[in-house]
Amino acid sequence: MSQKVSSVKGMSDLLPGEIETWQAMEQRFREVLRRYGYAEVRTPVLEETALFARGVGEGTDIVGKEMYTFTDKGGRSLSLRPEATAGLVRAYIEHSISNQEPLTRWFCFGPMFRYERMKTGRYRQFYQLDVEAFGVKGPAQDAEVIEVALEVLRALELKGVKLELNSIGDAQCRPAYQQQLVAYFTGSRDQLCAECQLRLERNPLRILDCKNEKCREIARGAPKMLDHLCQPCRDHFAEVQRLLGLVGAPFTVNPWIVRGLDYYVRTAFELVADDPVLGTASAVGGGGRYDGLVQSLGGPDVPGVGFALGADRLKLLMQGRSFTQAPDLFVASVDDKAFDAAFALASKLRKDGLGVETDTRGGSLKSQMKRADKSGAQFALVVGEREVAEQAGELKPMRGGESRRVSFADLPAILRAPR
Ligand code: HAM
User: Is ligand 1 within 6 A of the CB of residue 286?
Assistant: First the structure.
């Protein structure tokens, strides 16, 4: 026997039984995004490595440690996208969208790839719903985008997810704050984990995000960005909060949110679920404003704000709910002679819009009825000589109840009637 080939670690198949939850989720995403006027965009899963290095940031874990990067046959360095924003920004620039409209609302749904240490809710291929708005500097766009995220969660009937909000300043106020932070952490440098000692040089803000207990303890006493915002950042943040209040969006301010990507300015937020099913992967989404990103990737000076929701984690939160759709009817045949009639009846009813299953293997009535039971069909109908002659048969409810005689012509109306 040949050796079996398995799927790549951290990348899973989505099979019938769970795919229905994914489909329901995607359907609800799309419905919400339609209401808010966001249009779907699909970009390639492969991009030039430089896009992510420049976009997400060379010093981030995502680019530094987690990308699937390879050289193609033409000698180009390519990477599987670890997130969607950089690719969407590239497409926005490449198609000169800013010349066509001053405000662009896009979303994208698809797989992302990060070579991460795997745990519950953390995979190497995972799906994101990514939402971006380009062109608006003012806080109304932040508030709208955040509301979209909350509305998606509401559409999925996920109640236990909390919005945590912060401002991480901009090029005016962050450098001075960063200096203070470096000064503060330098005082306890030796007690920081090895990773944070490196961060102290490269990306001191990320120390605030470290999961190491000692680092967290030290970070608790660190100066907060919120206390060092310049006036325009302060006003922007206040206005985002006011507008969220206006539309009844609940949030808490969490001064320790820094985000793991370099492009953010001002607003940064996370959606956090308090549910043991996620283990330590409690962030179901995150986002913020990225005003310099379009320009830094060679485009015009267009601001942007957006977020991504981790669909695999949302799916874990939806566990236990059933979205499978069973057939309306199972058509069986008494014997081989009646097979053609059953086959033709099923075909006709499907063309009328019903979900109908038959056993294409034929076989005994008993084995067909076993299959009918397994299919979860609402009703079964057995076709024999008499049924063919009368164009009518016994409609048998599969979950209990009386059978009744119905004409084939009436079947669509009867099966479509609400039960
Ligand atoms: P992010 O925080 O890196 O942001 O990812 C967003 C969400 O994707 C996370 O909150 C999490 O739910 C999910 N996620 C991330 N990594 C994994 C993984 N390995 N396995 C399963 N789920 C994962 C971004 O990606 C930004 N591009 C969001 C954004 C859009 N900001 C502005 N626009």
Answer: yes
